[in-house]
Amino acid sequence: MREHEMQLVCPAGNLPALQAAIDAGADAVYAGFRDQTNARAFPGLNFSEGEMRQGIAYAHARGRKVYLALNTYPDSARLAHWEGAVDHAAELGADAVIVAEMAVLDYAARHHPNMARHLSVQGSATTAPALRYAYERFGIARAVVPRVLSVQQVERLCESAPVPIEVFAFGSLCIMVEGRCQLSSYATGVSPNRHGVCSPASFVKWDEHPDQSRTVRLNGLLIDRFGQSEPAGYPTVCKGRYAVGGEIFHALEEPTSLNTLELLPRLAAAGVAALKIEGRQRGVAYVKAVTQTWRKALDRFESAPDAWTAEPAWQQALSGHAEGQQTTLGPYHRAWH
């Protein structure tokens, strides 16, 4: 398989999703072990050792790559478990580890210098000096930047950063620092970073009512109420509806997904190395459809960049898999930066 100018990096929450992403045209997939070393530690999600071996073999046989997300923050008493996960990733033949915590990066650099190290979005590095520090101290080969940057900031970072830049191209948005939601921590008392989700399933309670409406609570906190035929997504504090000033509305953020497809030429011109699709917690249908759409768009752009436009069919396909069936450019589109 030839190298693409911008790598398409897609989510794999399980083996069928990994295979679907590879078959649909992903250049690389990112996945995690079935423990707290990755920031999507949903029950029933992620890979056993046997599944990871099978997935890596499947990808490598087709000339693709697998990145292991070891992107949570261990406490000092359990650091050895994260170090063991780095060893395991190297033994399995992972092409890179995606790491946020500096002690884990340091261990990977010292013990497995030939395995690439990517700075995770959970590391929240948004400036050239921050990336230079990670490059000089831990030899990172790539940095995944947070979804809080405007496109102008991404462009400047690509010019000044010592390593290639990976940006999120499609998927869920977060109004907090990546993976460390203080709203969720306040409501549940646990860290979203190490518990894998803003709303851990053990804290979520749905109730059906006589009028066939449904309410959902997070650790007792009322998040939303849905009418009889109203679609209901996975509940998070930031995307709930609340009574404010006599009105009930999405006071913090509406359910919507990031979609940067129309910015593809600008991201390419900036020198972005990789486009990342969010969604390891999503199903195979999502992974397949979104990967196929972005593969078509990227291939068309590479073959005829000057004539490229985002086709309505591509946008329609992506909107169908977006939260609330709607998409946004998010912080990429803000006027100030």
Question: Can you offer a commentary on this structure?
Answer:
The chain is of the alpha/beta class and 337 residues long. It folds into 2 domains: 7-173 and 256-333, Aldolase class I (TIM Barrel, Alpha-Beta Barrel); 193-249, no CATH class. The chain is built from 11 helices and 15 strands. The strands form 3 sheets. The protein has an 8-stranded parallel β-barrel with strand order 1-2-3-4-5-6-7-14, surrounded by 7 helices. It has a 3-stranded antiparallel beta sheet with strand order 8-9-10, with no helix packed on it. A two-stranded antiparallel sheet has the order 11-12. The two termini are 38 Å apart.
CATH topology of the largest domain: TIM Barrel
Spans with pLDDT under 50 lasting ≥5 residues?
Answer: none
Total DSSP E strands: 15
CATH level 1 class label of the largest domain: Alpha Beta
How would a textbook summarize the main sheet? 8 strands, parallel, barrel
Q: State the strand order across the main sheet.
A: 1-2-3-4-5-6-7-14
What average pLDDT do the residues reach? 90
Features:
single chain, 337 residues, alpha/beta, TIM Barrel, 2 domains, eight-stranded parallel barrel, three-stranded antiparallel sheet, 11 helices, 15 strands
